[in-house]
Request: fold
Amino acid sequence: MAAQGRTAAKIVILTGAGISAESGLGTFRDEGGLWAQHRIEDVATPEGFARNPLLVHDFYNARRAQAAEALPNAAHAALARLQREHPGEVILVTQNVDGLHEKAGAAAVHMHGALEGALCAACGTRWQAPLVMRPDVPCPHCARPATRPDIVWFGEMPYFMDEIAEHLESCDIFAAIGTSGQVYPAAGFVQEAAYAGAHTVELNLSDSDTSRSFAEHRVGPASRIVPLWVEEILSQ
Ligand code: APR
Reply:
């Protein structure tokens, strides 16, 4: 509990693919990662989807099936515990689409969408995706066959940016876990938070592109270093 007369810290946490690596889900840019096996322009852009929607659905259907089988690890569990037990606000922003934060019992802001979402490219209606999605499935609202995964692709605007900016401006601690710092706007969050006066900490297996912007570094696998970091915060 916070000492009397002190307000509890507001914490904003950004997570990336590295937090789910030990749950068996490959990252994007580590050796042998997803972007070594697939071309971004084919499977993660609106243009790629327009060219070959079946290929794009196959890619996300496979990832959805893998994520459905995956279990959260100790890092996801620790963040859920932090959200439950920290007396101040804990805002979890994730670039991940795997749903493992929710499986661990946390609430996350999904800035890059979610594998379990379907989106009508014609009218914008969202609904729960079936395990296997197809482009010719009619939208439940407008009936047009324009079903796409509710995933933010390259060239598209991430979700909840205004809300996230407000949290970054008002947080006391900003942590980035398991993200390479190569994709904006998420890669710029550390600077926004630091500018607003927050203490910044990076938790990663190795250096990221934005490591130099962080005041503190914790190095190691997420399943080991995140529970330790959470324990420290809760015992302060
Ligand atoms: N524990 C902690 N960190 C790890 C672990 C681990 N066990 N394994 C890998 N990492 C770190 C790597 O060191 C790297 O910095 O996770 C990071 C993974 O980086 P990326 O593969 O680039 O994933 P991410 O940063 O989440 O990618 C951002 O790129 O293609 C898009 O939309 C996609 O949301 C994704 C975005």
About this structure: The beta strands are 11-15, 90-94, 108-110, 113-120, 126-128, 147-151, 173-177, 199-204, 216-219. The two ends are 8 Å apart (CA to CA). The chain has two domains: 1-25+72-112+159-236, 27-69+114-151.
